[in-house]
Design goal:
The complex is a heterodimer of chains A (about 425) and B (about 500).
Chain A: H1 18-42, E1 48-52, E2 65-68, H2 69-86, H3 96-116, E3 120-122, H4 123-148, H5 157-175, H6 177-201, H7 206-231, E4 244-245, H8 255-259, E5 261-262, H9 264-282, H10 284-294, H11 296-301, H12 306-333, H13 344-354, H14 359-382, H15 388-392, H16 394-406
Parallel strand pairs in A: 1-3
Antiparallel strand pairs in A: 1-2, 4-5
Chain B: E1 2-12, E2 15-26, E3 29-35, H1 41-48, E4 56-61, E5 64-66, H2 71-76, E6 79-82, H3 94-99, H4 113-127, H5 142-155, E7 160-164, H6 172-187, E8 191-196, H7 199-205, E9 208-213, E10 216-221, H8 228-236, E11 254-264, E12 270-280, E13 283-288, H9 295-302, E14 310-315, E15 318-319, H10 325-331, E16 333-336, H11 340-344, H12 351-355, E17 366-367, E18 370-371, H13 373-386, H14 403-415, E19 421-425, H15 433-448, E20 452-457, H16 460-466, E21 469-474, E22 477-483, H17 491-498
Parallel strand pairs in B: 3-8, 3-9, 6-7, 7-8, 13-20, 13-21, 16-19, 19-20
Antiparallel strand pairs in B: 1-2, 1-4, 4-5, 9-10, 11-12, 11-14, 14-15, 17-18, 21-22
Classes of the chains: A mainly alpha (about 425), B alpha/beta (about 500).
Chain lengths: ~425, ~500
């Protein structure tokens, strides 16, 4: 005879769940941050930190933001300690991610205040630089999104950025900025196509194919820039796209300089992110592309050409990365230097993961990295006690913290990284 | 609509999967295609659905010759297939899955999801399917997912619908509902092909039966007159016994004592929810349940493959809740895993290498970290012979063995040493009848020699044949328990419990 056994509520028992473990770790980190803020940033600091919000020739002047350094740091430390302690009691489990995010924000703010104590610092300038520096990362991340959504892992973004930078400078020097930009996009697309051919048709391991392309681009561009450009300097002297002010919007304090006094790379990045979002989530082709990345066999049985979809997306991803690469030369210094992308392509991939394979997510993550990057640059000018080499590490440290700590397990497209072999 | 397959032949290298098959499929009729795994049923249907191209033979639709270059052509010709492993994208909604490949669009390639939803609702109403078009597939139970597959083929106006082993993942109650849907479709004039190896199902639903063995049609039958035994004999090619011979039930003392065991999935969902279970020596405890109700997590916790979130497991009065897998193994645990390719063997290794995966460190097989291969070969050859593993030599790549022989190899490795407790998870899934009989006899042999056995299966018949005690798992809990030593429990009651229908 059947006998029903007593059902028990799982909530009633104390379980060793992943959430509880995560809450514990978060608590420890927050309390360590609190100690850091209290002892390093607050202790013995005096004076006010002045943040300038508008620049001398802005149409509307906004008063400066003045923060008493020591008081702010002690308050931040107290809040951090409170948030950390909350993680150890049951109620904190629900807000773990939020607490961590807010805690990090506070710690960064305390750091900024400490570094600026007794001095003044242009916040608007830093935010403007944040957006500028986020562009190559966002475009790299967007290229990553486009190719990983069809399940091709694109390590070659770094190489595509570098190839775009190189081509932009070379063709730009000879034929002008716009032709250089188009050439950079075309070369990026070419490398995308080569990657697609290697991994889709010839089924080379995706990571290896990407690394091979990166090394190839690095080798060729470094050779040319060290051997040829030394002799013929006119080949490496491209025009730079100047910022274009957007009427009215560019006059808004803080936001205006950040978003509406930029060059075409910044506007291009924003537009591409919007188009990519529409494409992936609101069109037929986008639905098919995502299906190919999630379950290629299912897509195949429904008559979708898996290989062609992957070719197209990876090639377009290469074009986006080529455009992003041109930023380094045509959008910034007008000159190509060896290895000038400095691994930003990889950080772009990190932005893609942090942004959960969504174009807007990748953009937001790129802005965080851009912030870390521009902050280290501006702080180097303020002469903080921290050696500038350490400050220069901050974008990379931000990458590690975000990818390893904050995000937890983001879900990649299910077939990501796997070759599809048609039966 | 009438589809005729003429003399279809399909080879994979040396293997002839389909050998000159003739078959007719008619509208308003359910054609039952019976055969063991590897008999060539799925290959035949993949030829019909355009996934494979036949090496020989032709396909006629309403008397006209057709040539399928790919699945697209066959879909266009009105042939739809519901695969054994659903071809659904878990992170897409029902509507998105249904329209994929034939999407309604507006300007600028705009995806018209609103229209898609309406169309899904229309099909829902016409055939009484009741599926919410906006739900994500991963949130739906398998029974509903299968309906989504059916909507998919109907959305493409299929007139022939092929079901490949459609009941493998369903609860008994879902099977009944599924059969109702199949009847509705048949009465609406669709031609249905029902592929299975389950005898009672094919008798329940088919209007006509064809039996496939080793790539050939070996027989046919009228479901009203033919018996299960006759069908089984046709399918296997020799008389089959459905009974398992075992010694009288003589349990010893409690071996494994599980108390309030809770196991979580990676996302903190509760997989096993406070289970209490005692298993004695000389006893087979059968765990019945539909896949995904916590059986796998229970086994992983018992074998030390996953972290236990709460509760204790004691083995011969020792707390082993956090003991390592090897420690458990040394205490006498044997484990036949549910997926031999993922957990039970390394397909690219040889048979000999696979045979010592668990004992390679033993002094018999290695000294000072150097393998004593001659000893390994000799031992493997002996054990393989004992366990009826059919091979040419122990140096064969294990992946090249047939499924039944692979599983016998796993069983041989696990049981050829001193064991006290056997965990067997779906040990006969996808095997031929001969291997099933053999593996059942080995499990019963372990019980008769005093091992405790935990036996997990989603096939009620198998559970009832082997178990001394049956527990039913549903949503991570044990919802019912049956004593099978004194009287035979009612199959319907077990089925209801598997569906969670216990007050």
């Amino acid at each position: 005879m059947a006998s029903t056994l007593n059902p028990t509520e799982p909530q009633a028992r104390k379980l060793d769940t992943a959430k509880v473990r995560q809450a514990r770790n978060t608590g420890v980190i927050l309390i360590l941050l609190s100690v850091l803020v209290a002892y390093v940033f607050a202790f013995g600091t005096s004076g006010d930190a002045t943040f300038r919000l508008s620049r001398p020739n802005d149409p509307w002047a906004v008063p400066n933001l003045v923060v008493p350094a020591m008081a702010f740091s002690y308050i931040a430390a107290a809040v951090l300690a409170f948030l950390g302690a909350r993680q150890f009691v049951r109620g904190g489990v629900r807000w773990t991610g939020l607490s961590m995010g807010f805690g990090l924000l506070l710690a960064v703010a305390a750091f900024l205040v400490w570094a600026t104590a007794g001095k003044s610092f242009s916040l608007t300038g830093m935010l403007q630089a944040t957006v500028v520096r986020a562009v190559p990362i966002a475009l790299g991340g967007l290229a990553g999104v486009l190719s990983e959504r069809v399940a091709v892992v694109n390590i070659a973004i770094e190489g595509m950025l570098l190839a775009g930078a190189f081509t932009g400078a070379l063709v730009g020097s000879l034929l002008g900025g716009y032709v250089g930009l188009i050439a950079a996009v075309a070369v990026g697309g070419l490398f995308g196509f080569i990657l697609a051919a290697l991994v889709i048709t010839y089924r080379v391991d995706q990571i290896i194919a990407g690394v091979v392309l990166n090394l190839f681009v690095l080798g060729v561009t470094s050779y040319v820039s060290s051997q040829v450009y030394q002799e013929h300097r006119f080949l490496n002297d491209a025009p730079v796209f100047r910022p274009v002010d957007i009427p009215f919007l560019s006059d808004i304090p803080v936001i205006g300089p950040m978003l509406f006094q930029q060059n075409i790379f910044v506007y291009g990045a924003f537009i591409m992110v919007c188009i990519a979002t529409y494409y992936l989530f609101h069109t037929r082709s986008g639905l098919r592309a995502r299906a190919v990345g999630e379950h290629p066999q299912a897509a195949d049985t429904l008559g979708i050409n898996v290989y062609r979809t992957r070719y197209i997306n990876v090639t377009v991803a290469g074009m986006v990365a080529g455009f992003g690469g041109a930023w380094f030369t045509l959008g910034s210094v007008g000159r190509f230097d060896e290895g000038m992308t400095h691994g930003l392509g990889y950080i772009g991939l990190a932005a893609m993961i942090v942004g959960r394979w969504h174009p807007f997510g990748a953009l937001m993550a790129a802005l965080v990295f851009g912030f870390a990057d521009s902050m280290q640059q501006k702080l180097a000018l303020l002469q903080t006690p921290i050696p500038s080499e350490f400050l220069a590490m901050s974008p990379y440290i931000a990458t590690i913290i975000l990818v390893a700590g904050l995000i937890g397990r983001a879900r990649a497209p299910a077939a990501d990284g796997q070759a599809y072999i048609k039966e | 609509m009438e589809v005729e397959l003429r003399n279809i032949t399909k080879r994979f290298g040396e293997v002839v999967a389909n050998d000159g098959i003739n078959l007719t499929i008619r509208g308003g009729e359910v054609l039952g295609l019976l055969g063991e795994n590897g008999a060539g049923k799925s290959t035949l249907m993949n030829v019909l659905s355009g996934l494979y191209s036949a090496d020989d033979g032709e396909i006629l639709i309403d008397g006209k010759l057709v040539d399928f270059q790919g699945p697209g052509d066959s879909i266009a010709a009105g042939i739809g297939m519901v695969h054994q492993h659903f071809m659904l994208i878990p992170v897409f909604t029902v509507a998105e899955n249904v329209i994929l490949g034939v999407e309604p669009t507006g300007k600028v390639d705009y995806l018209d999801l609103k229209k898609a939803r309406t169309q899904v609702r229309e099909i829902n109403e016409k055939y009484g399917l009741e599926v919410d078009p906006d739900e994500l597939i991963e949130n739906l139970p398998v029974g509903i997912q299968q309906r989504v597959e059916i909507i998919k083929v109907l959305f493409r106006s299929a007139n022939v619908i092929i079901f490949d082993e459609p009941t493998a993942v369903l609860t008994p109650q879902e099977v009944i509902e599924f059969f109702e849907i199949v009847k509705t479709l048949r009465d609406a004039g669709k031609a249905i092909v029902f592929i299975t190896h389950k005898l009672h199902e094919i008798l329940d639903i088919s209007d006509r039966i064809r039996v496939l063995r080793r790539g050939k049609i070996v027989g046919e039958g009228d479901p009203i007159t033919i018996t299960k035994t006759e069908l089984a004999e046709m399918m296997v090619g020799r008389p089959v016994s459905f009974d398992v011979v075992k010694e009288p039930f003589a349990p010893g003392k409690v071996l494994l004592d599980i108390e309030d065991l809770t196991v979580l999935r990676e996302n903190d969902d509760v997989a096993v929810d406070g289970i209490d279970l005692k298993i004695r020596s000389g006893e087979v405890v059968g765990v019945a349940g539909v896949q995904g109700n916590g059986q796998s997590a229970l086994i992983e916790a018992l074998t030390g493959l996953t972290r236990v979130a709460g509760g204790t497991v004691r083995f011969m009065d020792k707390d082993i809740t956090r003991a390592s897998t090897r420690a458990r193994h040394r205490m006498g645990f044997a484990h036949i895993p549910e997926d031999r390719h993922r957990m039970g063997m390394i397909t690219k290794f040889t048979i000999a290498e696979n045979m010592v995966l668990d004992t390679y460190y033993d002094a018999r097989f290695s000294k000072r970290r150097v393998m004593n291969w001659p000893k390994v070969y000799e031992n493997s050859a002996r054990v393989a012979a004992d366990y009826d593993v059919r091979m040419t030599s122990v140096h064969d790549t294990a992946g090249h063995l047939s499924g039944g022989n692979q599983q016998k190899m796993v069983v041989a490795r696990e049981l050829s040493r001193e064991t006290k407790f056997l965990i067997a998870a779906q040990p006969t899934r996808g095997l031929d009848v001969g291997s099933i009989e053999y593996i059942h006899s080995r499990i019963i042999n372990a019980r008769d020699t005093g091992d405790g056995v935990l036996f997990v299966s989603s096939e009620i018949d198998e559970i009832m044949a082997l178990s001394d005690r049956i527990v039913v798992m549903f949503e991570g809990r044990i919802v019912a328990e049956f004593d099978a030593t004194t009287e035979t429990p009612d199959k319907n009651t077990i089925g209801l419990a598997m569906a969670g229908a216990v007050a």
